[in-house]
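Students often ask why we bother encoding 3D structure as a string. The short answer is that it lets us treat folding as translation between two languages. Here is a chain of 564 residues written in the first language.
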Amino acid sequence: MSAKPAAAIDPITLEILFNGLRSITDETYIAITKAAYSTNIKERRDHSTCLMDPQGRLIVQAENSLPVHLASMLGLMHKLLEKFPADEIHEGDIFVANDPYAGGGTHLPDVNLAMPVFVDGRLLGFMCNLAHHADIGGMSPGSMAGGMTEIYQEGLRIPVVKLFSRGELVRDVFDLLLLNVRVPEERRGDYYAQVAACKLGVRRLLELAERYDAGTLAAGFAAIMDRTEARIRAAIGGIPDGSYSFRDVLDNDGMGAEDIAIAVRVDVAGDRISFDFDGSGAQVRGNVNVTLNATQSAVYYVLKGMLDPEIPNNDGLIRAVDITAPPDSIVNAGFPAAVAGRANTAQRIIDVLIGALAQALPEQAVGAANGANVTAVFFGADPRTGRDYVYLETLGGGFGGRAHKDGKDGVQVHITNTSNLPVEAIEMEYPLLVESYGLIEDSGGPGRHRGGMGLRRVVRPVGHETVFNGMGERFRHRPWGIFGGGDGATGRFLLRGPAGDEALADKPAGIVIGPDTAVVVETPGAGGYGPPADRDSAALAEDRASGKFSDAYLRRHYGDAADD
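And here it is in the second language, the structure alphabet:
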């Protein structure tokens, strides 16, 4: 059946269709949340779902999906269609991949699934999802520690292969996936949750196809993308023409490279915008490198966030942007660069993009957020059961001060919008005691609108030894303030034992701790917006009353106004 031209769909029908499609992706997202085994997915919601068209173009992404996952799902579809001709894609197939180089991913723990949808024998699209598995093998439990220098060390590399063929599980492939990971029972449960979500999405899309024929749906896909492209180009047209640049640095790669540059130049002319990352540092030995598709996701996120936060994520947004980056650089890494910590670098790319566009869009800019994806991984054998466990979490921190509001405290920021894991979930699932959990005093940067505050979590193993791996950023370079705002506090890792506190490196690996020692994880705060002298007296009174800031801090940054 030939597709109707996009113009043939009236706006009301198109809006109903779009919301129907978004409802499908949202329902499949919830299905993974409800069915997953690991706390990283069922509690922290580190997963995403979307619908792609037969050409691998994004049509709809679930509302709560992570921006960084957009790159992986698009990359999977590109590699899938490149590898499998149309006559090798069948009803009931489910494809799986995770590799950044052979499978279109961004790092190995993010495992992608894609299932084709056929209507009357014609390929209508693909239901896709991604979940961050708490371990994907490799040299370090959790597959996210510092110290890894090539992709082979980071875990099991999965190219695009069929996990299901014509509705039947490919047992050999699944056995291989489970053999190469820690805690395979948990991994099996998470894979089944993803498979169930794929099948649910296909059922729901087929139900929609009973109401709208395949031709109307295909025309609707095209109209959704065209509408988004027109909307984002109109927003780009509101940016003053010109060239805007900014530069920042990563702390280090954990392997000796420090102050790794990330630079961008943004050129705007009418409704066209381009991003050039020339001047960014070369790729490094440590695992903070980023493949180009993750850099692209950071660009799309910032463009949407600063120009039109309500615009849907689809290919219309993507095709309105030109992005270039030097090959074999920190923002466009080449094989076999290690990339497990790519989210930390993606956060810094976002800081740089906001810094550049702030010159043209001051009302939409924010102070530097915590600029990290602080990771804590605990691995050991549960003394209650004798079974291995992997507790992985990335913790939130401060969000930057805004033109008209203070920053947010203790939240995931920008490209990662997962939840912080509740204390109750940690202590129920793992033989770990959370001794304290709260905000860090004085960690938000001062300003007319202050920056958000970092988090502190103190975790101690109960009745056994555990191995701790971590990864932090903004542990040396403070999150900067904007338009006169002050900097936020840095983060750090500590060991707290009988003799007191001992500082750890910011990308520690293989630290064995027993019940007499606790791990202290402190995440960065965020920068403020505007001069501290302009802060409202009522806001200062709230700062004092909340207990979030000491008297010394308030006097130092706000002077006599803090005492009035």
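Translate back mentally: The chain has twelve helices and 20 strands. Keep this in mind for the problem set.
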